[in-house]
Amino acid sequence: MCMAVQLKGVNFTYDFKLILEDIHLEIKERDFLAIIGPNGGGKTTLLRLILGSLRPDKGEIHVLGLPVNKARHFMGYVPQHEVFDKDFPVSAMEMVLMGRLNAKSFFPFYSRDDYAAAKETMGVLGVEDLADYHYGELSGGQKQRVLIARALAGRPKLLVLDEPTSSVDSRVEQDIYELLAKLNKEITIIIVSHDLGFVSSYVNKVACLNKRLAIHNIEEISRDIISELYKSPIEIIEHQCFL
Predict the structure, then answer these.
(1) Which of 45, 86, 101, 235 would disulfide-bridge 136, Cβ 3.0–4.6 Å?
(2) Domain that includes residue 26, residue range
(3) Is the distance from CB of 208 to CB of 43 less than 8 angstroms?
(4) What is this structure's pTM?
């Protein structure tokens, strides 16, 4: 199976502080990887390096066998916090269509194919009936589905999500992970989450990150222990990773 993401010996420094050190990571196609770790441990920085919005001080990064700058159009991204004026007049459909824009788009012009792709992804996410609704009026769960639909509208081979369920309740969280599990049959997924007890039922690999990184197959982590000690799942992984 081909590698979706490869990092070799990656270091990243910000403001003279070493944020990531000697990161080695291999993610196979159709892996579902959860990245966990303490605040300030470098999780979002690692995502931004994979997405190409940051450059490493040292090391190599390849996505789908390509340098990051040549693989960006193969990636979809759902950020941790969507900063968006709730009063800005944009519909859910228009929000999803933004996922069809590329770096060369100066003025947004959408083709029939763009609308077809947006409608299809909204159908997959179960929000097609919200197409004409004002985005700012949607619930937290509906907004997250629309944002995931936006990320999928460009037909990515890699979907990257930074804590996509941080602002929704547990019922919506489960719905979103069920949707991601279905999507994972076709695409590779990387997700940052603080809730390993929840995501352990869906992911097949866990990356524990605190400046340095350690990878575990999910089978190596006792789900019984995580369920029993749910209040501190990260401490369990930190102990095993020595991070």
Answers:
(1) 86
(2) 3-241
(3) no
(4) 0.86
Q: What's the first-to-final CA gap in the chain, in angstroms?
A: 29
Spatial distance between the Cα atoms of 73 and 101, rounded to a whole number of angstroms: 10
For the chain, what's the residue count?
A: 243
* Distance from the Cα of residue 234 to its chain's centroid: 19
Burial 39-66 (b: 16+ CB within 10 A, else e): eebbbbbbbbbbbbebebeebebbbbee
Q: Are 60 and 9 in contact (CB under 8 A)?
A: yes
The total number of structural domains in the chain stands at 1
What's the farthest any 2 CA atoms get from each other in the chain? 53
3-state DSSP assignment of residue 219: helix
Q: Give backbone dihedrals phi and psi of 67, rounded to 5 degrees, phi first.
A: -60, 150
Q: State the residue for tokens 């060369």.
A: 104
Residue 134 in tokens:
């004002």
Coil, strand or helix: which one is 52? coil
Residues ≥6 apart with Cβ < 8 Å to 114: 97, 100, 153
Give backbone dihedrals phi and psi of 125, rounded to 5 degrees, phi first. -85, 0
Task: Encode pLDDT of 116-174 as tens digits.
Answer: 999 999 998 889 999 999 998 998 888 888 999 999 999 999 999 998 877 677 777 88
- 67-98 pLDDT tens trace: 999 999 999 999 876 656 667 789 999 999 99
As to burial, measured by CB atoms within 10 angstroms (0-12 exposed, 13-18 middle, 19+ buried), residue 72 is middle
Q: What is the pLDDT of residue 234?
A: 45
List 60's β-bridge partners, or say none.
8
Residue with tokens 């279905």: 182
